[in-house]
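A reminder from the course coordinator: this example appears on the midterm review sheet, so study it carefully.

Given structure:
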């Protein structure tokens, strides 16, 4: 006789994983969540909105997971997973309501999967978002033992008349760049080629510690700013850097001009460039120290920058919106 466990799937380890995450998941859920873990679907009561628009996004952690798996550091990639999704929907002015995760592996280890989910719950708690469900798929023969993949799905809401977007950006708006926490979760296929030894020294610590810093969560400060300032549009700076992501925040006929001299480039990017990457490839791959953009009228910029400092977020005016070429560096 051959059992399911003989084929490589250990249901008991799955039950153990659920028990390990149950309490941390419960802490993210308020009265809007109408059922708990274990149902076939998750029920979320939308609440009182005049004209709500649901905004959704999905993303994964990518090959940053290879660094996490090698160094056995799993909780920060859970934060990355949440941030990659929630920061995206934030660009439309949406408050993230709930999140679902998907974890796939060759052989489930409850302690590993629970650490990943712990990172997700930490990010959810910081952002006021409910973790309402997910899926852990044990797939022996498809993934190698020890391999994990992590992705997520986020749903948020905004009032229709308060949506931000490229159609609201106008000629003369300024572009404010909010600092990133480092490499975030993009460009790691290149990073891993540049840094084959994750234990090599970087500013007195093994470089993997710098690389594993989680993607910054912009939800709390930006949602507060939306109530006080006339923010027209926003962009989350992910793969492709400023060149690919900034133009997504403006409409037809407009362009964004970025002044690179106004951007504080963290040392990790200077280090990576020194390994032999052309400067333009750096700027067209990584966030280079800018994780999120806000586009708004020039006369509100200084006050908004001051407001961001109260959240311990550094920011500065790094560009302008004007008619012409879709994107250029000054």
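Designed residues:
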């Amino acid at each position: 006789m051959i059992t399911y466990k003989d084929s490589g799937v250990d249901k008991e380890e799955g039950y153990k994983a659920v028990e390990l995450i149950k309490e941390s998941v419960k802490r993210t859920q308020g009265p809007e969540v109408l059922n708990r873990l274990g149902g076939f679907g998750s029920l979320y009561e939308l609440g009182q909105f005049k004209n709500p628009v649901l905004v959704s996004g999905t993303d994964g952690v990518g090959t940053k997971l290879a660094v996490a798996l090698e160094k056995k550091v799993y909780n920060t990639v859970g934060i990355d997973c949440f941030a990659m999704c929630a920061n995206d929907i934030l660009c439309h002015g949406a408050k993230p309501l709930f999140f679902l995760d998907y974890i796939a592996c060759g052989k489930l280890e409850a302690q590993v999967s629970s650490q990943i989910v712990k990172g997700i719950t930490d990010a959810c708690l910081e952002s006021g978002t409910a973790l309402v469900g997910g899926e852990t798929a044990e797939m022996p023969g498809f993934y190698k033992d020890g391999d994990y993949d992590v992705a997520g799905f986020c749903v948020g809401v905004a009032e229709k008349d308060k949506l931000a977007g490229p159609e609201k950006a106008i000629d003369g708006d300024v572009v404010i760049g909010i600092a990133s926490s480092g490499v975030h979760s993009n460009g790691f296929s290149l990073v891993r080629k540049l840094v084959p030894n994750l234990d090599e020294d970087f500013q007195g610590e093994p470089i993997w510690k710098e690389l594993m810093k989680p993607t910054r969560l912009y939800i709390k400060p930006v949602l507060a700013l939306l109530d006080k300032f006339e923010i027209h549009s926003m962009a989350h700076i992910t793969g492709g850097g400023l060149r690919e992501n900034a133009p997504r925040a403006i409409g037809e006929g407009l362009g964004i001009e970025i002044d690179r001299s106004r951007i504080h480039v963290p040392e990790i990017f200077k280090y990576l460039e020194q390994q032999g990457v052309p400067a333009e490839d750096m700027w067209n791959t990584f966030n280079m120290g800018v994780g999120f953009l806000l586009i708004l009228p020039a006369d509100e910029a200084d006050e908004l920058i001051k407001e961001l400092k109260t959240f311990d977020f550094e920011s500065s005016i790094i560009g302008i919106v004007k008619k012409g070429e879709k994107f250029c560096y000054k």
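The longest helix spans residues 110-127. The mean pLDDT is 94.
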